Amino acid sequence: MRVMVRRALVTASATAVLLAVAAVPASADEAFYTPPSPLPAGQNGDVLKSQPSKYNGATATRIMYLSRDAKNQPIPVTGTVLVPSKPWTGPGQRPIVAYAPFTAGMGDQCAPSKTLAGDGSSDITASVQGSFINPLLDKGIAVAQTDYQGLGTPGEHTYVIRAAEGHAVLDVLRAAQRLPGTGLPANGPVGITGYSQGGGASAAAAELAASYAPELNVKGAYVGAPPADKSVLAKSLDGSYAFGFLGFSLIGINTAYPETHMLDLANSTGADLFVQASKSCTMDAIFKFAFKQSSSLTKDGRPVSAYLDQEPFRSVVADLKLGTVKPSVPTLVEHSPLDDILPYAQGKQLAKDWCSLGGTVQFKDLASFTLFFSHALAAFGAAGDSATWLNDRFTGQAATSTCGQF
Q1: 365 CB-contact burial (10 Å; exposed 0-12 / middle 13-18 / buried 19+)
Q2: How many Cβ atoms from other residues are within 10 Å of residue 254's Cβ?
């Protein structure tokens, strides 16, 4: 009974905090999320369309821009460019930070460019996205937020797919620089931040920046609680309260790598879960799918992790792994030792892998005061650390490495 009460109190506290940062309502325009057909030719990051949006403390513009999927094919991606009301008081031009959102869900109603403006899903986790954005705006730093592939736009969301997410993050910076009428510099300093799913996307962008977007003047990247190794997550998420995130991952893999024929492995219950998960936002997925076992969803009764040592899954998981490419920018990685969704060892190992490649990397533990919902609650501390660390880069403070000290 004591444990149940404690869990209820933690859940209530987390809900109260999430609701406290709710965004300002705005009117919907679903037609905006329909891309032009055929998709126009252009450069990665070109703005296809834009419209005014709403957000406290900033001039907000909803955008659709060109990016690339995991197979390097052109795709439309949506997002939001936020220019703060506060001036930039640091040296040089106003910087822009790409914000890679944490898990919002898979349904189009979950797209952060909708929920940040008060549109779309009423899922309470949508509100906490602002906890990462607001400290940046408060420092006079502009924010370019991406929805990633398939959130809002047609098709399934390629959840935690390294290349697709890294491209979307880098291209939203290009789009912000090219968006007319914002006053943002076309070649000024930029940074990258994200937590959880966003931490993986930020890490992917840091790895891909030198080859995919070498013209960007990236001063640093913040990586919080990254899902670095999908083979580990296939085991840690299975049977957990966050099982829905494993479902999201399988949909992402099936979409980005159709050669895996993921649905062919599922029994009728598994196929139905795929359909339900593809329409769900975060909290809905947690409540619907908590503590499920993937072995009950496959035709042969094996868990998802049992497939990962065989092709084509082995090659796909290797392709998704973070830590194999040296980040070309200074990077801060943070993770809570008590993380109850993404194992702490993931973040620390990613930082060590980057150190071994010669990266300029810092690793720090995120404070966490509870064993329950520690992953979600640690995000609030991460948000402040992200803004402070990136602001230091923009104001000319040199990033130091802590490689060998953790």
Answers
A1: middle
A2: 21
Q: Are strands 74-84 and 142-146 parallel, antiparallel or unpaired?
A: antiparallel
Q: Alpha-carbon distance 80 to 63, whole Å? A: 6
Largest CA distance in the chain: 61
Strand, helix or coil for residue 64: strand
| β 96-100/189-195 pair status | parallel
Pairing of β 217-224 and β 331-335: parallel
Among candidates 165, 172, 163, 146, which has minimal Cα distance to 72?
163
Q: Residues for the chain: how many in total?
A: 406
- The pTM for the full model equals 0.93
Give the pLDDT confidence score for residue 119 in this predicted structure: 78
CA distances from 271 to 51, 134, 316, 347 (A): 37, 39, 21, 32
Element (DSSP H or E) covering residue 17 = helix 2-20
Extract the tokens encoding 356. Answer: 């071994």
Amino acid identity of 297? Answer: L
* Spatial distance between the Cα atoms of 80 and 51, rounded to a whole number of angstroms: 10
Q: Domains of the chain (ranges plus CATH)?
A: 37-228+328-394 (3.40.50.1820), 230-318 (1.10.260.130)
The pLDDT value given to residue 25:
37
**CA dist., res. 38 & res. 183, Å (int):** 30
Mean pLDDT, the chain cut into blocks of 10 residues (406 residues total):
34 34 47 96 97 96 98 98 98 98 96 89 71 97 98 97 98 98 97 98 98 98 98 96 97 96 94 96 95 97 95 97 98 97 97 98 92 90 97 97 97
Q: Could you give the CA distance from residue 392 to residue 330 in angstroms, rounded to a whole number?
A: 12
Question: Using CA atoms, how far apart are residues 358 and 361, in angstroms rounded to an integer?
Answer: 9
Distance between terminal CA atoms of the chain? 39
Neighbours of 239 (CB within 10 A): 15
Per-residue confidence (pLDDT) for residue 372, from 0 to 100: 81
